[in-house]
Amino acid sequence: MDNKTIYALSTLFGKSGIAVIRISGSDAFSVFDKMTDIDSAKAISRKMYYSKIFDSVSHETLDNCMIVGFRAPNSFTGEDTVEINCHGSKAVIRSILEALSALPSFRLAEPGEFSRRAFYNGKMDLTEADGLADLIDAETKIQQKTALRQMGGTLFNLYNSWREELVAMQAYLEAFIDFPDEEIPEDTVLKIENTVFKLMEQISDHIEDNKIEERLRDGFQVVISGPTNAGKSSLINALVKRNVAIVSDIAGTTRDVIDAYVDINGFPVIFSDTAGLRESSDIIEQLGVKLAQEKVAAADYNIFLFDAENTSPDIFAQYCKQNSHYLLVANKADKISNFRKNELESQGCIVISAKNNENISAISSRLSQYFDSMYQQSSASLITRHRYKESLKECLENLQRFNLQKSIELAAEDIRLACRAIGKITGRVEVNEILDKIFSSFCIGK
Questions:
Q1: Which whole-number Å values give the CA distances from 419 to 78, 161, 299, in the listed order?
Q2: Same domain, yes or no, for 295 and 309?
Q3: If you compute the radius of gyration of the chain from its CA atoms, what whole number of angstroms results?
């Protein structure tokens, strides 16, 4: 990272009422002097000014804008920062960016560089940076809520508390390395061993309790399966409220898996419409049935759909034994008697008519309840990145190797490596090798 002042468009490029151009670095406030009539020395931090903005070379007026400065260290990046709120036409944006490029020591920011500078200047740790990235990408209310919680420091506080305990233990052990003739007092040995055991238990539970972290980002997999002509395609169309699957009375119409994304009460869900589960001499249909069976086995939740008029839920007995999270749904309620409907409901089935969009909300409600129960169990300290889990496992492995019966130098090394593994998550160690990967996922101007 160099010391140049960086700038970038922080809003989407295109027609809009307002666009925001962010500038950060030691020369950021020079924009007031060179591109407006405002004296930078008199510019009050966090005060918005209305001003014309012009090209520093030609003095041509580019726009009328609102401009605000944030003096270091009280800014997002921890550096002097200026934000130009201009009109959002492409011509205006281009002209201001070109004018900034002509200023000495100014350059266009790289992807994620504002957040990276904030990290280097101690304004955020890596978990907060990841939370910001998730907030930018959030498409559902739950994703937004989880990202905001992470930006608030929930994960950092947890991981840093573990790291501080490891640092304290490491200090004890290294002190005794410096005095090899001294034996470690028995109460100190007991304290260290108890702390290691407690941390192992807490980290193991933390890893084990987090079952939905990647699903909140990528979507829960819900598979709709059942015999041919049960109405699977009609159901997925009703659930996602648009036509994503072909509906036909011809058995075996759906031969491949069709996926559709939908937001259910804030939870991202991917519904999969599968080929009908039946014996077939058609090679292509056989492949579709095999793929459907694989999808059922790998699903987070299964909807087993059958024709209420001609079939019973017993056809799914084998699948119900193999899957713990499922819902039995009887379709074509418009073709059965009230007695039959009551009978099916007494067997735990939800009775619907996909064709008439009847009782579809009951399915969404049941799914929402299930996902919410999973979220509530893990939401307090949700593992939101695969790299967190890998680092926690690495920490756990080093703690499991720890033993005061071996040489104290090796025992201290186990604790140091465990501490370093935790530090990889928050950035409290040298982690240049992973920074590029993290911040490269950001858009320019963030």
A1: 27, 11, 36
A2: yes
A3: 29
CATH code of the domain containing 420:
1.20.120.430
Per-residue pLDDT of the chain (446 residues; tens, 9 = 90+): 688 999 999 998 888 899 999 999 999 999 999 999 999 999 999 999 999 999 999 999 999 999 999 999 999 999 999 999 999 999 999 999 999 999 999 999 999 999 999 999 989 988 898 888 888 888 888 888 888 888 888 889 999 999 989 988 888 787 777 666 667 777 778 888 899 999 999 999 888 766 676 677 778 889 888 887 888 888 888 888 866 544 434 344 444 457 888 888 888 888 888 765 544 455 554 565 567 667 777 788 888 898 888 888 888 887 777 777 889 999 999 898 999 999 999 998 999 998 888 999 999 999 999 888 877 766 557 777 888 989 999 999 999 999 888 888 898 899 999 999 999 998 876 544 344 544 655 666 66
Question: First CA to last CA across the chain, in angstroms?
Answer: 16
CA distance linking residue 122 with residue 60, whole number of Å: 39
Residue 221 and residue 360 share a domain: yes
Instruction: Using DSSP, state whether 380 is helix, strand or coil.
Output: helix
Domain that holds residue 165: 127-210+383-439
Do 197 and 232 share a domain, yes or no? no
HEC-encoded secondary structure of 251-299: CCCCCCCEEEEEEECCEEEEEEECCCCCCCCCHHHHHHHHHHHHHHHHC
Which residue pairs, CB below 8 angstroms and at least 24 apart, start in 72-77?
73/121, 73/123, 74/45, 74/46, 75/24, 76/24, 76/114, 76/118, 76/123, 77/24, 77/114, 77/117, 77/118, 77/121, 77/123
Are residue 353 and residue 239 in the same domain, yes or no?
yes
60's tokens: 């041509």
Domain count, the chain: 3
Are residues 27 and 80 located together in one domain of the fold?
Answer: yes
Same domain assignment for residues 362 and 387: no
Residue 20: which H helix or E strand, with range?
Answer: strand 18-24
CA angle 220, 264, 140 (to 5 degrees): 85
The CATH number linked to 23 is 3.30.1360.120
**Is 115 among the domain residues?**
no
Distances (CA, A) of 103 to 30, 38, 78, 166, 398: 9, 17, 22, 48, 51
Q: Where are the beta strands (DSSP E) in 56-189?
A: 61-70, 81-87, 106-108
Reported for 44-47, long-range contacts at CB under 8 A and 24+ positions apart, including other chains, are: 45/69, 45/70, 45/71, 45/74, 46/70, 46/74
